[in-house]
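Researcher: Let's run the pair from yesterday's discussion. Sequence first, then tokens, for each.
Model: Starting with the first of the pair.
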Amino acid sequence: MAERTLVVDHMRLMYEGLFDVEELYAMIQEWFREKGYDKREDKNYETVTPTGKYVELVLEPWKKITDYAKFVVKIRMVMEDVKKVDIEREGLKVTVNQGKVSMIFDAWFETDYENRWESKPEFFFIRTMFDRFIFVPYTERFKARLLEDVNQLYGNIKGFLNLYRYESEAVSGPPTPTQFPKF
């Protein structure tokens, strides 16, 4: 059985405002493709509610590092109250989405994912000894690389969503009396 080493556990990203669902998904897919991850989509659920669309995605792309180890990144994405909204961008009317986005990132690397060292007890023992004493520098390097990948993806998504946040602030104009906080 493959052994998992958890590197990122429930890193959260929350956003509410304007965004483009298709562009967000395409940006995430392109990032994984550029980094050499193989695509895997575990769940893609969409339903229409009275307040807007509800979309739930679970992506679990993986990347083979060696014949012995691979990276797995899991993103759970929930979009609520997603509605189409028309905005004006540089004098042109553009349709984007408005709603809430919540993402949870998990990442781990698996060793012996092909179960080559599980066939005999002697192999299992040797693998355990190698993992604990000899491969430690390699596993630490794997952890650092995977953490760097997840942090880079997190920053790219956060930057992508913040572009829409600043755009919506610029487009919205001066606040109306209903937007002021009530004391």
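Model: Moving on to the second of the pair.
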Amino acid sequence: MSAAIAALASYGGSDSESDSGSDAEGKPGLSAQVAGADAVLHLAGPPPSAQQALLPVVDSAPAVSVKEDVETGLHLDPTTKEVQYNPKYDTMFAPEFGPVNPFRTQQMAAPRNMLSGYTEPAHINDFMFEQQRRTFATYGYALDPSIDNYEVPTKYIGSVEEAEKNQGLTVFETGQKKIEKRKKFKQNDASNIDGFLGPWAKYVDEKEVAKPSEEEQRELDEITAKRQKKGKHEDDKPGEEKTVLHGQCISRFTNRKVPYCVKFNPDEDKQTLFVAGMSDKKIVQWDIRSGEIVQEYDRHLGAVNTIVFVDENRRFVSTSDDKSLRVWEWDIPVDFKYIAEPSMHSMPAVTLSPNGKWLACQSMDNQILIFGAQNRFRLNKKKIFKGHMVAGYACQVDFSPDMSYVTSGDADGKLNIWDWKTTKLYSRLKAHDKVCIGAVWHPHETSKVITCGWDGLIKLWD
């Protein structure tokens, strides 16, 4: 490299000698040095200062975020209704933090404060709101609430034609609707005797049809066919009663009151007389030959329930709803024996014993009381039969023919049998599904009892 530079320098010095002969003669060394320095100037490298500028710049300080790059705003809660400062737009409408459902539609992703959407309180007069609501419900139109009514006062929603017809009047301005009445034929001239109709005039559109139409006739035929349709014929059970009434009604007796009990006089010479306990607190005696009332016994204070003849049919005993027992002489309307105690209850069923000495009375306090039936008619306190429930039901009491047992039904449909001597409950049978209202011993076959109940059955027990 240095050899090439020296050769170039010598070559340049020979050329300059011919041009400047006089100068070279005076100072030969200086001219050669100047010419050599200028000739190789472009071949020299850059100065040291320039070499330093071309080196890469290295900053040893770490990268630190400046204050402007850090977000200093506060994040608002989406449910916040009020803030105490003036936030920026970006802060108020920034997206919410948290995961986002990518499958939500734009409508579902919109903010909501209720199930159907977003509601905000609006200032509206209650009267105006109710007025427009009723107008829309009645006529089908209302003012459009989405626009300013001051600018466009005739903008309606719903039935616009109806609004134009009513000139936009509301329910409080149109008045009450008139009910269209059916028109009648008018012929009010009273002087026209044949043609006068008056208030009996028929309607204009009224039809007079004497015969039902085909559809109505078909329905009537179906109804009559169902009524005439008979049920299944079941085989008659053995011992079933097929007739209800026997013979012809000969005569009728009434005093226009409800009779509760009827008894014929058992004497042979008084077979034409009978007594009936009525609902008007009287015992009425009739003669079937004349059909007239021959005697009245009116000392009871309540409806008469039972009548039983005692003492060889010279007397009869009656019980009533007034919780009393009265003994009467035949054909004498004044009772000669009156039995009533504060502890007594109504006795709607009374039976005379086979020997004629005792009266068994079904008391409504679930007891069977025994009264003497000969002289004093006193209560036999040693003969009280308990253990059954008959409150509210007039269950019949009966004695066995040999006076060994006392029987009675009860409200549960059971047949109760007591021992006469010990008054203990001897047996209890489930006789009926409903109330067992009657029980009678067979007068000849003393081991058999027949019962009847409210289930519609009559049963014979052995």
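Researcher: Give me one sentence on the second I can quote.
Model: Confidence is low (pLDDT under 50) at residues 15-32.
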